[in-house]
Protein 1
Amino acid sequence: MIDLKGKVAVIFGLANKRSIAYGIAQKFAEAGATLVLSYQSERLRKESEQLIEDLGQTGTAKAYQCDVANDAEIDALFAQIKDTFGTIHSVVHAVAFAPPAAIHNDFLLTTRDDFRIAHDISAYSLIAVARGAAPLMEAGGSILTLTYYGADKVFPNYNVMGVAKAALEATVRYLAASLGPRGIRVNAISAGPIKTLAARGIGDFSKILDAVTERAPLKRNVDQSEIGGAALFLASDLASGITGEITFVDCGYNITGL
């Protein structure tokens, strides 16, 4: 059993119980980690506090506001974490966004501003978060982000998000090289499709779910718990020699042709 007692894990992007980040937070909490949740704006504060209660971390976990598009808020977040916990051991970056028009419209119609926003929130924010976290990871640790197979292959109605995820995966590799000398590992999980709030914005999402069920070697889709288990492994000392990798947790869908 993986033991994270005494470890502090900072999780960005835990929006609700249906999010992939919630499955990760559950596994971390079960392993004994102390959680720090980051919520985007004041209107999400109460929901984050409720999630702490649901995860059984009342009195130990903390929730702080941080919009990852704002460097000042990132700096303020890690200053608060330093004052409260001193050190962190894991960071989970489960943040992605593209304007709806850039998802729904033909890719050729992607505007310059929508392209910029998608890459800023979905890819650059990992760099910004890693830069803030690194000084508090004095003993090394794990930084983990979430990607999707749409970074490699064209999926209908994924559009600019697929390009942003490709940038995110390259960012993982370059950050792994940059932070490796400090003992900080950087990896990504390429999760299979799950019915999250974010997934609702992808047209014909049910067809993607059906395709995975039909073609994946395991003949089913993944669930939050399975992604959480992979994240727990990658954050633990069992994965001490793994960095810069994209780990697929998709029931094997990515290995199939026809």
Protein 2
Amino acid sequence: MASVKIPDTKVQELKAICQKFRNDGSELINVLHGAQELFGYLPPEVQEIVADELNVSLAHVYGVVTFYSFFSMLPKGKHPISICMGTACYVRGAEKVLDEFKKLLKVKVGETTPDGKYSLSCLRCVGACGLAPVVTIGERVYGRVAAGDVKKILGEY
């Protein structure tokens, strides 16, 4: 992964997020949420600053970032797409929906389109099992999605 140069103004904003939580290592998850909101993702350079500011090991920060699926070490697209692969969604055809997104966007799960418009990921459960299969694009939730609906959904963006 290429090194990311973080502008000094963003470094100061990140340090302010850490200070908001009293530079307390037990607030790591809250700090990481704020950092991801600020940067859109959590590259190693951001993780290093957080580790230094909270006085925790970089390995600990990395462990938290890689454990929780909400956190991303790669930049997300302008319109992040997530397909639920929980049991209800899976048995109702989520895999076919995912395959259609991959085919139309020409990306694999975890990738972002070259134009930066879309990124594709899977979730374990959205909590809307009655609407299975479920797709989210940003904050918008689409329920009862079939593979044939994917092109129309993408057309909205």
